[in-house]
Amino acid sequence: MDGDSPTFGRRAVMTGLGAGAAALAAPRVAAQARATRRRRYALVGCGSRSRMFETAIWGPHRGEAELVAICDTNPGRLALAQRRAAEAGAPSPRPYLAAEFDTMLRDRRPDALIVCPPDNVHDDYVVRALDAGLDVITEKPMTTEAGKAQRILDAVRRSGRHIRVTFNYRYSPFRTQVKELLMAGEIGDVLSVDFQWLLNTVHGADYFRRWHSDKSISGGLMVHKATHHFDLVNWWLSDVPESVIATGKKEYYIPAMARRMGLSGPHQRCRTCPEKAACSFFFDLEEDAALRALYLENERYDGYHRDQCVWRESIDIEDTMNVVVGYQGGATLSYSLNAFNAWEGYRIAFNGTKGRLEHGAVEPALVAGASREQDREIVHTRIIPLRGAAREIEPRMGEGAHGGGDAVMLADLFDPDAPADPLLRAADERAGAASILVGVAANQCFRTGQPVRIADLVTGLERPDYPAMPTRQDRIPMPLRTDQV
Ligand SMILES: NC(=O)c1ccc[n+]([C@@H]2O[C@H](COP(=O)([O-])OP(=O)(O)OC[C@H]3O[C@@H](n4cnc5c(N)ncnc54)[C@H](O)[C@@H]3O)[C@@H](O)[C@H]2O)c1
Q1: How far is the CA of 48 from the centre of ligand 1 (A)?
Q2: 138 lines ligand 1 (CB under 6 A)
Q3: Is there a domain that residue 461 lies in?
Q4: Which of 163, 95, 72, 139 has the alpha carbon at shortest distance from 428?
Q5: What is the pTM of this model?
Q6: Do residue 195 and residue 328 come from a single domain?
Q7: Domain of 53?
Q8: Which residue has the CA at smallest separation from atom 21 of ligand 1?
Q9: Which of 141, 207, 307, 327 satisfies CB 3.0 to 4.6 Å to 239 for a cystine?
Q10: Are residues 145 and 192 in the same domain?
């Protein structure tokens, strides 16, 4: 590590993994460091998601952050990232192949590593970076298995370094607003939650084409996708999961479904498919300039096909999942995730001692990595007292990807002057683990049919920092008499 590298405490990392965050602990020293030196980042995994971090570092946060190195298994995508830097007028990050990762850390001396390769290798990079004395920003899911989560928890303890897990959904203004309503006690304390997440046959189907369709890489949708949703509920409730029971199956993205639709059967990939014209799930990698540059033109280096047939026999992730989670504080969550639905988005209802909060969003059906701009969500939020008239809440809307969450989160990550956040949206390894372990437990339950206790999956997992919420002990008003409603 650099001799002048600032040191970051847990609080600092939670509010802005940057030099300014350290200012909370030692204002004068950090302010001087900030004036003289930008924070140095290395990034591993130069695919679709990495562009969000690049754009932030080369754009609004160039004054406080610099990307000094990039690392990937695919030399073509390293070269592409360098071309993007040139287009952005940014200094070229030095490229390293994955086998040169440790050399990269030694040569370039970054302060922090940004981790965005496929999910199953996150733990390896996170642990190596922590042990080399770096802080880490990792994409969700933090990792895919309980043993890997344990490695990360142990490495944090051993190294004294810090992790931010980029749960961007917490930062979407309309989801932040839901947290504020719950914290304000609008519906009292929450006893149960009903939550449905729907993926449609555009974005939802896309998971079945990519590496995500291999459970050993993504952990399946229970980990890869639902980590966002379980984290939201954990954070919305300010509570941690205790027990999980679940069922999961795949009945739509199967060879028999292709045949029911009149196809002769699944094939390997869209590009070479003999039934392109007949299949409305045909995905054209050549048509979109961004997809072509990112994946098609780099196939020759690693043989990765981003347009695999969604009807393939070998897909081992589920498309229909139902989960019941018991929380330490007593609340219960009933959750479902379905990947072949008529629309994309979610509905959630919090059932509280004073009433019910209903919230939901219809999301734009994106294809990950494509050039097309994202449309806006259609959001609703309403509060219904136990007895009395429902109240519609004007949703707080943001601009840009993930309901406006990405931009707000990036400011919190990189801005040295990010204000302290009363909602504690910055997530660390404890929240990263608390969310993936629900998915890991659900996967275990799919196999065994037996309930799983989260405490049996890892040791030494501490409760994340969450804001205070209404409690089971608070006084609550007697509901209106029925003749007053
Ligand atoms: N927070 C969000 O909303 C969000 C959205 C999209 C993706 N993600 C996460 O970002 C990560 C990357 O997803 P993506 O969509 O960019 O995938 P991608 O396939 O577009 O890119 C992955 C990149 O990692 C590289 N890679 C593969 N194996 C590697 C290894 N062993 N070492 C180093 N590099 C390796 C690939 O060559 C590729 O460049 C995933 O963890 C995903 O879950 C998060």
Answers
A1: 7
A2: no
A3: no
A4: 163
A5: 0.92
A6: yes
A7: 10-168
A8: 47
A9: 327
A10: no
